[in-house]
Structures are given as structure tokens and as C-alpha cells.
């Protein structure tokens, strides 16, 4: 449904804006200032990978640093440190993950939140420590984005629809050798 709306919006934008060349429609920097007219106002608003970016940037720039410190390594959830676990699923999971902002200047949206697993194994709920008997893997969502390519005049840009795999969370799975 969203994809159809986005495609209609792209088509509409192509018909009404930009310059038609052999490469397709080429847009200049002024057109790019507000990319919303390429994709429709609400196209990506339902994707956490999109709307979480703003939240993550606010966290990184200070504010709630104590409350939601982002971890970069596999946590050791021994009883004494259990308070460090926040209400968020990414830190309560036995395959905990963090979010990093992926920046690609030739993609719309330029910034997306990518999930990264903190452990290669998972947290054993009895010991609170990592166990290699099971594996953390990312759960991926396919998402439509627009890929920006420079036109031959070196000044304007054309756009192509592209589908990318976005890691949105981590889950705990048995190793393949179990089957
Ligand atoms: C998601 O993609 C990653 C990287 O390509 C892959 O290793 C992982 O197995 C995928 N997750 C699932 C659940 O298929």
C-alpha cells in the first residue's frame, strides 16, 4: 500500500518537476532541498528505521544520556546489574541489540537506523551471561528507497527505486548444526 503511494508520488513528481534527459528526470539542488515532494509526505513515516533517527540523534547529542546509555558490547546481566536493563526491547532481549545511524548521501532517506546485535551468542537467562550454544541474528525488513545518481551535466541528479534490506532487530536462534 505504502509502496504504491510512493510510486504514485514519484511518478507525479516526475511529471511535474525536473528536467527530462536521456537519463530520466534530472533534479537540481533546489529540488532536493525538500525531498518530500519526491516521495509524498508520509511515505516512510511508518518505518521505525526512518522515524527513530531523530530520536537517536537527540539521545546522542546529550539529553537522556544517563537513562539510555547505548551499549557497544555484549552485556553481562548478573543479578547486581539487572537494573541497567531499561524498558526497551533492544536491551531486554536475550539477543540484545543497539541502533546505529546509517548515512548514505546518495540514498533517500539519507539516514536510517540499523540494528546491530551486541552478542554473537545470546544471554543465558539463568546465568545472565552470554552463551554460544545459540546465536544472535538480525531480523531484516525490505524497504523501498530512492538511489540518487548524478546526471551527465554533473550538476543534477536522477533517482531510481531500489529495495534494500534493513536490519530492524535481533533475535536468538539455534545454530544451523542443530537441524
Ligand atoms: C538478515 O541479514 C543478515 C545479513 O545479510 C543475515 O546474516 C541474517 O541471517 C538475516 N536474517 C534473517 C533472519 O534471515
How would you sum up this structure, described in words?
The protein has five helices and nine strands. It has helices at residues 2-16, 29-33, 36-39, 48-60, 89-92, and strands at residues 19-21, 24-26, 97-103, 107-108, 111-117, 122-123, 130-131, 135-150, 157-173. A three-stranded antiparallel β-sheet has the order 4-8-9, with no helix packed on it. 2-acetamido-2-deoxy-beta-D-glucopyranose binds at residues 137-140, 165.
Tell me briefly what this model is.
Keywords: Cytokine, Secreted, Signal. The chain has 179 residues and is α+β, with helices and mostly antiparallel strands.
Name given to the CATH homologous superfamily: Cystine-knot cytokines
Distance between the termini: 37 Å
Order of helices and strands: HEEHHHHEEEEEEE
- Bound chemical compounds: 2-acetamido-2-deoxy-beta-D-glucopyranose
Estimate the global geometry from the Cα principal axes: elongated
Main beta-sheet strand count, sense and barrel state: 3 strands, antiparallel
Using the coordinates above, name the CATH class.
Mainly Beta
Write down the overall mean pLDDT.
Answer: 81
- Counting DSSP H or I runs of 4 or more residues, the number of helices is 5
Strand order of the largest sheet: 4-8-9
| Name given to the CATH architecture | Ribbon
Report low-confidence residues grouped into runs of 5 or more: none
Protein name: Interleukin-17C-like isoform X1
Organism: Acipenser oxyrinchus oxyrinchus
InterPro entries: Cystine-knot_cytokine, IL-17_chr, IL-17_fam
Keywords: Cytokine, Secreted, Signal
